[in-house]
Amino acid sequence: MVAGLAIGGCAVTPAASAPHPESSLVASSPAANAEATGVYLDFGTCDPDRLHQLAGTTQVYFFYQADCPKCAAADATLLAKGVPAGLTVFKVDLPSMPDLARKYGVTKPNTFVQVNGAGAKVKSWTGSVDGAEIETHIK
Question: What is the pTM of this model?
Answer without folding.
Answer: 0.75
